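Whiteboard transcription, Tuesday session. T.W. wrote the structure tokens on the left side:
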């Protein structure tokens, strides 16, 4: 994983697999479009028709990469696709996925969401054994491990995945003796989401359920940690990876920020989870006796939590900021002065709602602090009398090594400052984070999730990061 120069925790990647559905590549394209928020640097689709893999990949947004002509070339009823946000390997076109290789052992195509924590060692070993890599992405080690192994496709996949560590939700197509199988895999910790949907007589597998809605697929269920769905002919078989791990570790940040609120992720409505986090903040403020006139959410991911806060506290929910969706993301700009400007053109305050009001402002996180500071300045300039900033998550104190692009620890404001100091820095009258214990209580989470960026309790030691 590389450290980010960008302003915050950034989305990871999104994957889609379509099995036994006419125009599979077209369905994959639409589903990738629904997953665009998970990666904007590039996308690709590989389809299988009459035993042959055909692919198209490009840099940019899904709608700019695919058109009628190149989709029509991707024939067949089976396809996998990927939207990329570069967490490992950097953003050059050879790193776009799905990766794809022809070998004497059968053709293999792979799409990956996550980050492998031991990829550098594996790559070194594979190169010493003669493997030639075509990209810089960690995913390619899985491709080589499968290609080098003998046995049935299932045995080859098992042997390959026994060697990799870290976070991986995968879609893999393996063609073996003119018979193709698709494997949907979630790592034994279950870091990244992966769900199964039904479409006609076929199947769709995707990172989030919002990918099903656009193509009229029906959500079936979330894959279990360590589960593999092996699609062959017109059905699938479920089996578990023979790897045991000490705990489960589904990413808590998927609910807080990364996933779309209209998705089911880890079997739960993201919208409901965010609302509950807002309710939890309101419960604490009620207990502490906070006096305010209204609550607003920082669009987009702060809105659901603000609605929950409003329901619980009785304060009116208002729109205080309007987001312009049609500009580039603030992280595209490299210089601090430009980045502040981008915040301003991205979020525009509504003075008529804010003037003279004591405002509770709900956001999902404070990463470096610069964006929050600018937003609060905008709110004050628009007339807000008091700003009580509430974060619907604990303080982010440490980077992610499992598929999320994050600033390095020294750039995380909460790793250096106390809650009070941060409140002062972001120009708020008060600041409160949501304690991790309260999240587990409120969301009624039965199994421990990955919360390492809030607690530094890493489920998998980040052994070989930064050396790829
Ligand atoms: S470290 Fe944070 S962002 Fe990364 S997987 Fe864990 S909870 Fe998610």
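and on the right, the sequence the group agreed on:
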């Amino acid at each position: 994983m590389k450290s980010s120069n960008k302003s915050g925790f950034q989305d990871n990647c999104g994957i889609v697999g379509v099995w036994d559905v006419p125009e599979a590549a077209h369905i994959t394209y639409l589903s990738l479009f629904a997953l665009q928020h998970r990666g904007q640097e590039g996308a690709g689709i590989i389809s299988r028709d009459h035993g042959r893999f055909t692919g198209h990949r490009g840099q940019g947004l899904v709608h700019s990469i695919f058109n009628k002509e190149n989709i029509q070339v991707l024939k067949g009823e089976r396809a996998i696709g990927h939207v990329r946000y570069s967490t490992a390997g950097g953003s050059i076109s050879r790193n776009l996925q799905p990766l794809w290789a022809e070998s004497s052992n059968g053709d293999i195509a792979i799409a990956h969401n996550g980050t492998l924590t031991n990829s550098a060692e594996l790559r070194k070993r594979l190169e010493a054994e003669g493997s030639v890599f075509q990209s810089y992405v960690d995913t390619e080690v899985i491709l080589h491990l499968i290609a080098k192994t003998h046995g049935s496709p299932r045995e080859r996949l098992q042997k390959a995945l026994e060697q990799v560590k870290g976070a991986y939700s995968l879609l893999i197509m393996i063609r073996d003796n003119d018979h193709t199988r698709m494997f949907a895999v979630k790592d034994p910790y279950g870091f990244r989401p992966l769900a199964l949907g039904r479409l006609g007589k076929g199947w769709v597998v995707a990172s989030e359920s919002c990918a099903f809605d656009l193509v009229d697929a029906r959500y079936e269920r979330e894959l279990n940690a360590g589960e593999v769905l092996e699609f062959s002919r017109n059905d699938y078989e479920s089996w578990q990876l023979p790897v045991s791990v000490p705990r489960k570790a589904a990413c808590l940040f998927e609910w807080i920020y990364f996933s779309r609120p209209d998705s089911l992720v880890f079997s739960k409505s993201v919208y409901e989870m965010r609302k509950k986090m807002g309710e939890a903040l309101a419960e604490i403020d009620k207990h502490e006796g906070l006096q305010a006139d209204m609550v607003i959410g920082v669009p987009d991911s702060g809105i659901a939590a603000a609605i929950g806060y409003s329901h619980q506290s009785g304060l009116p929910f208002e729109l205080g900021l309007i987001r312009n969706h049609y500009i580039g993301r603030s992280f595209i700009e490299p210089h601090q002065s430009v980045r502040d400007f981008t915040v301003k053109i991205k979020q525009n305050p509504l003075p008529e709602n804010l003037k003279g009001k004591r405002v509770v402002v709900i956001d999902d996180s404070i990463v470096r602090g610069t964006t929050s500071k600018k937003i609060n300045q905008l709110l004050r300039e628009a007339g807000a009398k008091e700003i009580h900033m509430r974060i619907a998550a604990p303080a982010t104190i440490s980077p992610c090594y499992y598929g999320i692009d994050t600033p390095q620890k020294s750039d995380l404001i909460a790793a250096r400052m106390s809650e009070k100091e941060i409140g002062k820095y972001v120009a708020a009258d008060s600041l409160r984070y949501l304690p991790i214990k309260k999240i587990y209580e409120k969301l009624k989470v039965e199994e421990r999730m990955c919360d390492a960026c809030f607690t530094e309790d890493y489920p998998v030691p980040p052994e070989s990061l930064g050396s790829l």
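Someone added at the bottom: Confidence is low (pLDDT under 50) at residues 1-6, 329-335.
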